[in-house]
Amino acid sequence: MNKQKPKYNIALILILLCYYSPVLAKIDLLLGESLKYTVSFRGLLSSMIWLDVLDINITSASKPVEFEQQWVYHFSLYLTTEAYKKSELLWRTRYRANSYINKGLTHSLLLEYAYKDKQRAYWFSSKKKQLIIYREQKKQKQGGILGFGGDWVLEKPQPELLPPYLAKHYPNLLKDKVIDLGYSAWDYLSFFQMLRIWDFSKYPTRTAMVYSSKGLLHYQIAKLKLEPIEVMDKVWRAIKFRIVLENPNEKTKASKFYFWLSDDNQRLPLKIQIESSYGEFGMELKQVNHF
């Protein structure tokens, strides 16, 4: 029995390699890439005309990075309204995020983001099928009598309770809560990139679990058709997908959106169209750089 066990392990490895190799080969197309998008809005607030409201930059590291004694893939996002005067007046935004996924491309490991005075880290534990959320320090009142007087002081950090990576890079974060997922999940930035890699030729419909500030969202992705689309002054042959949120809640304003990928080796996300209770949002590719 013991002599046959290594043969079984080798066979299993070969099966996994055959299954993941097409996907792993495609990840190289994403590395060392920077994508710039402009987001537009049309609704009652814009008098039903399209207005550009913000820019998004999505960057993929040129090679795997070290994370918790393993090599992983790193994506980053920066969202800003600084180029748009109306947006700056109404909802000035500076938002950045960093996402890390395992090299086998099966699940997210960490999403860290900062927005205004908030900082959060979503730590995905694939073994325990849990999500651990860490937050920034908050001010607490100390001293005083019957609510009067006293001083506002920051909570004391406890880096010794953090995973090594967070303790090194974000030592002031504090553990907030633990959520039992029941299965592995994606963060929204990794999900965006994985849509480019997944093979829809055999299975035109897939499902994905994505965790965001709105909770654990169940998405169904369906490949619809090939169609031409004009982006960056060029007509592209594109694959159109429909993505539907299967478990909307009171926090989710958008339950369906469409997604166009270039039908070539790059699989560029050319355009996204989102339908929400506020109106329509369009996200269109404006610039591609490689480094």
Summarize the structure.
The protein has 4 helices and 18 strands. With 291 residues, the protein is an alpha+beta fold.
Give a written overview of the molecule.
The protein is of the alpha+beta class and 291 residues long. The protein has one domain. It is 16% helix and 51% strand. It has four helices and 18 strands. The strands form two sheets. It has a 16-stranded mixed beta sheet that branches. The longest helix is centred in the N-terminal third of the chain and has 23 residues, at 5-27. The radius of gyration is 22 Å and the shape is globular. Residues 1-25 have low confidence and may be disordered.
What keyword list fits this structure?
disordered N terminus, 18 strands, alpha+beta, 291 residues, single chain, 4 helices, 16-stranded mixed beta sheet, two-stranded antiparallel ribbon, globular
Tell the overall outline. globular
Largest sheet: 16 strands, mixed
Number of strand segments: 18
For the termini, the CA-CA separation is: 51 Å
Q: What do the pLDDT scores average to?
A: 84
Q: State the helix count.
A: 4
Which stretches are poorly predicted, pLDDT < 50 over at least 5 residues? Answer: 1-25
Which series of helices and strands comes N to C? HEEEEHEEEEEEHEEHEEEEEE
Percent of residues in helices: 10-25%
Structural class category? alpha+beta
Computed Rg: 22 Å
Q: Give the percentage of residues in beta strands.
A: over 45%
User: Into how many domains do the coordinates divide?
Assistant: 1
